[in-house]
Amino acid sequence: MKPFNGLVDLVADRGCCGNYDHHVLELFVIDTMDDSETYKLWRIRKTILKMCKDRGYLVMPKELEQSLEDFKATVGDPPTRKDLLMVVNHEEDPADMLYVFFPEEEKVNMKTVRAYLNQMQQDSTYRAILVLQEKGLTPSAKTAIAELSCKYTLECFFENELMVNITEHQLVPQHNVLTQEEKKELLERYRLKENQLPKMQASDPVARYYGLRRGQVVRITRPSETAGRYITYRIVL
Question: Which residue range or ranges hold the RNA polymerase subunit H/Rpb5 C-terminal domain (predicted)?
Answer without folding.
Answer: 164-236
